[in-house]
Amino acid sequence: MVRADLGADASALTRPAWLSAQRWYGANDRQLVNVELTDAAVLPMPGSDLTAWLLVLEASFAMGPSVRYLVPAIGDGAGPLREPGDGEGAWRALASAIADGQVLNASAGSFRCEAAPAAGELLPEGAASIADLAEHRLGVEQSNTSVTLGEGLFLKLYRRLQAGENPELEVGAFLESVGCRIAPRLVGSLRYLGPDGHAAAAMLQELVPARSDAWRQLGALLAGRGDGPQGAIAAARRIGAVTAELHRGLAARPQDLAFPLRQAAPAEVRAWRDGALNQLDQARYALEGDNRTELDQLASSIRARLEVAFRATGSAWVMRVHGDYHLGQLLVTDDGYQVIDFKGEPARPLAERRAPQPPERDLAGMLRSLDYAARTAQRGAHAAGFDADRWVAGARDAFLTAYTAAAPTAPIAPLLAGLEIEKACYEVRYEAANRPDSVWLPLEALTRLS
Question: Which pLDDT does position 314 carry in this prediction?
Answer without folding.
Answer: 84
